[in-house]
Amino acid sequence: MDWLNAIVQGTLLGGLYALFAAGLSLIFGVMRLVNIAHGDLIVLAAYLGLTTTVALGVHPLLALIVVVPAMAAIGYALQRGILNQTLGDDLLPPLLVTFGISVILQNALLEVYTADPQKMNAGALETASFDLGGLTLGWLPVLTMLVAIAVIAGLQWVFYRTPLGRAFRATSDNQDIAQLMGLNKAHVFGLAMALALAVTAIAGLFLGIRTSFDPSIGGGRLIFGFEAVIIGGLGNLWGTLAGGVILGVAQTIGAKIDPGWQLLAGHIVFLLILAVRPNGLFPRVAA
Amino acid sequence: MNLNDYSVTRTTREARIAALIGVVVMAALIAAPWWAGRADMRLLSELFLYLALASLWNLMAGYAGLVSVGQQAFVGLGGYMLFALTMFAGLHPIVAIGLSGVIAAAVSIPVAALLFRLRGAYFAIGTWVMAEVFRLVFAQISALGGGSGSSLPVDIVKSLAASRSGREALSYWLALAAAAGVVAAVYLFLRSRKGLALTAIRDNELAAGSLGIDILRAKFLVYVVTAAMTAMVGGLIFLQKLRISPDAAFSVNDWTAFVIFIVVIGGIGTIEGPIIGTLIFFALRETLADLGTTYLLVLGAVAIVVMLKAPKGVWGFIRNRFDLQLFPLGFRVRFPEKRKGD
Amino acid sequence: MPEPILNTRGLTAFYKDFQALYGVDLSVDQGEVLAIIGANGAGKSTLLRSIAGLMRNGADQIAFKGQPIGALRADQVAALGIALVPEGRQLFPSLSVEENLLIGGRIKRPGPWSLEAVYKLFPILKERRNQASTSLSGGQQQMVAIGRALMSNPDLILFDEISLGLAPIIIKDIYDALPGIVGGGMSAVIVEQDISKALSVSSRVYCLQEGRVSLEGATGEISREAISRAYFGVE
């Protein structure tokens, strides 16, 4: 039963990792950009959530109403102001510029919020739980998983069922020809980053409700998101959810063997999958 | 006009002058223990080790197109190997550092085999994952102090040299030798057939492929050699610090972020760039250190601006202005002074 | 004399250090079908790419309906009413047939073309509307590319090598459809290697040679000899 419990808890943890990963996967899909600052943007969202809950005295989940649009706006501005200039055939500029943004964000957060760990107070939601077939499930992890499923379903719908998604796919296929269709790629990329950071805002808030956070933890969140993307297979959003779950289960089982093994077990599973299935478990079938 | 008017040359007048200045500066630096204070020597040692790390990272990213944000894996591995080999195998520290290079090379082969499956930017994050794995593994080894780390025992420190000033001079010379050795090795490698091939790959992958250059093997070789040398530099770093912990040994900020900023600001893909970048980095640090985190904010912003506005960095800017090349790599055709006969 | 809908003056274009166009002067009249012929590398595609906004050109080098458009981006040019059917079709592989057409209709200019109108012109596309665009034959893909360009109801449509790589019977089908496309007052520029095809549908012709206009005139008034001189540059 202990083991089953570890697997179930790990599965639910995977919801959070899928939220970390979804934005990363989205922007890679649209513009082949790998954003090293992604983890720090998740942490930024958590801090924005903290400030909103403190300033307005609202529940952290209500803070989403403020943080989601704020992060989307930051995403659009970041893309049009800086990141669009880095896109091209050369790999270095986007990597190094997002790396620079990561360092700037980390230190700016340190300056504003200090290095002290913070946590958002979500009241009863943090501890509320229910029994299911002998297992005790926390409402918060269950809610996180449900939100992750909803977010991925939503992204999937936007991508494959709406004019915006069509624009994303067309621009990803061929930027010049997309431009001929009246799509301004700078704007399309801006919208993609806005959408990605809107998802990041949700990820940041659930992170901040679940655990304490400080400005230095962004790198770790980037890595979890990245591992979920690669395990699931590039370009496959549902695969990303599966990747998050596999990572989460690996970590909780590792932690059950020895608390020091939690993170290591996740990384090892990632490396094993990379060794055996370099394209991930569910790579999108080439059209 | 006939062909004899042209001459093909590798060296330039500037390069000869630079070499002469270099010899003088090296002589002065070797003599530092007799003229510099204790604090200055510590600072210079640190500068040399950063220069070595920067030159190595530049070789990977600027020439082989392997952008790693996980070189702290090998810095930390080298540091820990120094501690482990001296404490448990009783080796002399310098022997331990040499051996740690061999170990790092051996470790880097399976690591590269895995990471080379990731393309481009994902390779970069993959290297970071690997560094995390190293950090977590060493945090589990209780004989090396686990998560809190350990100090180098006094008798091992004393085995370097009996007197404190002797030890300081020796570790200074080791750092200087590391920097000079790495820069020279990178220079000679890039001048070699393989090195020129690598530059050709960077400048035009298609053309290089059609020349029959085995791109992957050249990159693999660079990764392994860089790992070995980075680990030896890591050993020297922690020989200076005399204390190691997983967080310090595998710090992404200390061993990768700073190194990347140095190379980007100085000029990526040039041998001179890391040298200039290291000097700028230390000049900034010594003047802005009091600002704390603001200093890092400024550094990050400067690196972004340089990457966007002057992607070849300070050295690239100087080189374009004055057509200088202090470490001549390729051959140049010297045009005749005056066209005759037309 | 009708105002030309498009003209270029001293148009130059570069790919990095390589100059592809050396001062091209050209005009397209309202409602006419213009052919541009020339050997490989003469600059025909570069000329169309320049007009469509995919190259960097001087602002005043291209004017559309009297407005300088040389410095505009392709999406801005498209919004003004110029559509390009690019060489090699270049459909979006991630999009279905219908989605390719719909994205062509992103710019909603008033006019006769709609999804229904395109399906009426090329009925086979309606059958295949939900298939991946990559699953179609070359000729069908070309129909999608043409339909995609028509969806925005452009005033000027540019065709770049639409017969390239297609079977003669398919080429005939596509050229048979052209009058129905340009009959409604739309102006067209057709770039072709196949001279006789180009001449059969156009009223005027320009010949390009090494980035310059080497011949210009009404289709009926130019002799074969003049064309081959202008085409190959033999005197």
Automatic annotation (TrEMBL), chain A:
Its main location: membrane. InterPro entries: ABC_transp_permease, BCAA_transport_permease. Keywords: Amino-acid transport, Cell membrane, Membrane, Transmembrane, Transmembrane helix, Transport. One of its GO terms (cellular component) is plasma membrane. It is found in: Cell membrane. It is a multi-pass membrane protein. GO terms for biological process: amino acid transport. GO terms for molecular function: transmembrane transporter activity. The chain crosses the membrane at residues 6-29, 61-79, 91-110, 139-160, 188-209, 229-249, 261-278. It comes from the Bacteria. Belongs to the binding-protein-dependent transport system permease family. LivHM subfamily. This is High-affinity branched-chain amino acid transport system permease protein LivH. It comes from Pseudoprimorskyibacter insulae. The gene is livH_2.
TrEMBL record, chain B:
GO terms for cellular component: plasma membrane. GO terms for molecular function: branched-chain amino acid transmembrane transporter activity. The chain crosses the membrane at residues 17-35, 47-66, 73-91, 97-116, 123-143, 170-190, 220-239, 259-284, 296-318. It is a multi-pass membrane protein. It holds the Pfam family BPD_transp_2. The keyword Transmembrane helix applies. Its main location: membrane. Keywords: Cell membrane, Membrane, Transmembrane, Transmembrane helix. InterPro entries: ABC_transp_permease, LivM-like. The keyword Transmembrane helix applies. It is found in: Cell membrane. This is High-affinity branched-chain amino acid transport system permease protein LivH. It comes from Pseudoprimorskyibacter insulae. The lineage of its organism: Bacteria, Pseudomonadati, Pseudomonadota, Alphaproteobacteria, Rhodobacterales.
TrEMBL record, chain C:
Pfam families: ABC_tran (PF00005). CDD domains: ABC_TM1139_LivF_branched. Keywords: Amino-acid transport, ATP-binding, Nucleotide-binding, Transport. GO terms for molecular function: ATP binding; ATP hydrolysis activity; branched-chain amino acid transmembrane transporter activity. Residues 6-235 form the ABC transporter domain. GO terms for biological process: L-amino acid transport. InterPro entries: AAA+_ATPase, ABC_transporter-like_ATP-bd, ABC_transporter-like_CS, BCAA_Transport_ATP-bd_LivF, P-loop_NTPase. This is High-affinity branched-chain amino acid transport ATP-binding protein LivF. It comes from Pseudoprimorskyibacter insulae.
